[in-house]
Write a structure and sequence with these properties.
Number of strands: 0
Shape: globular
Largest sheet: none
Length: 490
């Protein structure tokens, strides 16, 4: 039994490292691409594409009906499940490509953005492309093949989105540089995923397989609808009420705020979901995995949030340029939500891996209402009102999802609070140290590098000199496991 536990822990951590390294490469690429494109394109052009991706992303939820995650979550699958999932994904991909292409004019009228119509027509082919690779990608996730997935994602972003977007941006393609880059990224993903993961593509759909996939997939889809409304409801309100330029600014600062969740939280979520699904009936092991996941995220997200809050102006100047000066204050306020935006993903892993998708769904509905309702009110105070509303909604969702996980795993609220305290203590010491030393220079890059090094030194000192206060029991286990893992690799 211990060997099995160790094997799963090592496979999970191995997958985590590969996903993290892949996402790290993609994250660095995103930074570089963002730095370049922010200087080539106007905020309004980013705003048009952001509005288009709100529509595309929402429709993608229906275009797969949760079939992919159902393939990952089911304890046992066979060729009938796989072929049914593939055919269903392709069929729905065709339907949604035709639908969005046809409705693009009406959607652009709703957003009051004339340029949006042609952008949507091109991006509608995203559904068709994803329909062909969704099942293969889910099979890779099911087998914890995160090395392959991370390589594919990295290559697709660098060659597809990054290289294509920059070249077209330099040649004056404007908004279409972003549009064609998005299609290029999806096309490369399709080619690479289908090359690495072969599966049954027989043209047949079994009703029994549909029923088995749809019970989980249906609940997953309902939850995703509300989750997506929550994640994109703010863009919907900003785009319609404040215009494409405000949406372009908001979209970029939200992208920066969400980077820890995208690069780190998403990796933890994907890897833990697959690992938890394999031990979904063993509550004691699930408890341990959950607690350690929560501690790991808090160890990273809280210090990042403090650093981003303290140096928000420098981050905007370096990454976006001085022409985006209006983004500085909204970004600083938004950084308060980094921890809550990242941490709730661990609770989502628990809900999905244990099949509690409907209990998750109504919580996501409340989250969506909080985002949209808050932004409708907040718009009267401009972007500042929007970002304050978003932060409040993120905190509400964090509490709701934590409550769900604690009830599933029978963990006391006081224990949940306790495991966060070492990371909170780290955050307080970072805030005080940065405030007292006040190492700021005229050159924003120098300020960021100097203070980043200071933070690394302080955190290392806390972890290794006072581990009982700044790591806690689960944090010490994580550090010891990492040491053991790399010692075995030598």
């Amino acid at each position: 039994m211990n060997n099995k536990k160790n094997s799963l822990s090592e496979r999970t951590f191995n997958g985590f490292l590969w996903m993290l390294s892949g996402n790290g490469i993609q994250g660095v690429s995103q930074f570089l691409v963002l730095i370049i494109l922010a200087r080539l394109l106007e905020p309004s052009e980013f705003g048009v594409v952001t509005a288009a991706m709100v529509v595309i992303g929402f429709s993608i939820i229906f275009s797969s009906l949760g079939v992919g995650p159902a393939i990952v979550q089911r304890p046992v699958i066979n060729d009938n499940h796989i072929s049914t999932a593939f055919n269903l994904s392709v069929f729905l991909g065709i339907i949604f490509t035709l639908s969005i292409f046809s409705l693009s004019g009406y959607i652009s009228s709703f957003f009051r953005m004339k340029e949006l119509e042609n952008v949507l027509k091109i991006l509608s082919f995203t559904f068709l492309i994803q329909g062909f690779y969704t099942t293969a990608l889910s099979l890779l996730e099911r087998e914890l093949q995160y090395k392959t997935i991370s390589l594919i994602n990295g290559l697709a972003y660098i060659l597809g989105y990054g290289l294509t977007g920059i070249l077209l941006g330099l040649n004056g393609y404007g908004v279409y540089a972003l549009v064609i880059a998005q299609i290029a990224q999806e096309t490369i993903k399709l080619l690479l995923i289908t090359k690495y993961q072969k599966h049954n593509k027989e043209i047949k759909i079994r009703m029994q397989a549909i029923k088995e996939l749809m019970y989980f997939g249906g609940g997953f889809t309902v939850a995703r609808i509300f989750n997506y409304l929550a994640l994109q409801g703010d863009n919907l309100v900003v785009g319609r009420s404040l215009g494409s330029e405000a949406l372009g600014i908001y979209g970029r600062i939200y992208q920066l705020m969400a980077l820890p969740a995208t690069l780190f939280g998403q990796v933890v979520d994907k890897v833990l979901f697959s690992a938890m699904a394999k031990i979904q009936t063993e509550q004691d092991r699930l408890k341990l995995v959950y607690k350690r996941g929560v501690v790991l995220v808090s160890m990273v997200a809280i210090p990042v949030s403090i650093f981003a809050f303290m140096f928000s102006g420098e981050i905007i100047s370096v990454l976006l340029g001085n022409q985006w000066y209006e983004a500085k204050l909204p970004f600083q306020v938004l950084t308060i939500g980094i921890f809550f935006r990242t941490s709730y993903k661990i609770s989502e892993s628990v809900a999905r891996s244990t099949g509690a998708v409907y209990r998750r769904a109504w919580r996501q509905a409340i989250y969506a209402l909080a985002i949209i309702g808050g932004c409708v009110i907040g718009q009267f105070w401009g972007l500042i009102g929007i970002v304050i509303s978003v932060n409040i909604a993120l905190i509400i969702n964090f509490i709701l999802m934590a409550h769900l996980s604690l009830s599933i795993l029978s963990i006391r609220s006081i224990d949940f609070i306790k495991i966060h305290m070492p990371a909170v203590l780290n955050g307080i010491t970072l805030f005080l140290a940065i405030s007292m030393l006040d190492l700021r220079f005229t050159n924003p890059i120098l300020s960021l590098i100097t203070n980043f090094i200071l933070c690394v030194i302080l955190l290392s000192f806390n972890y290794f000199v006072f581990p009982q206060y700044f790591l806690g029991k689960e944090g010490k286990w994580i550090i010891n496991f990492v040491k053991m893992y790399f010692n075995k690799k030598k």
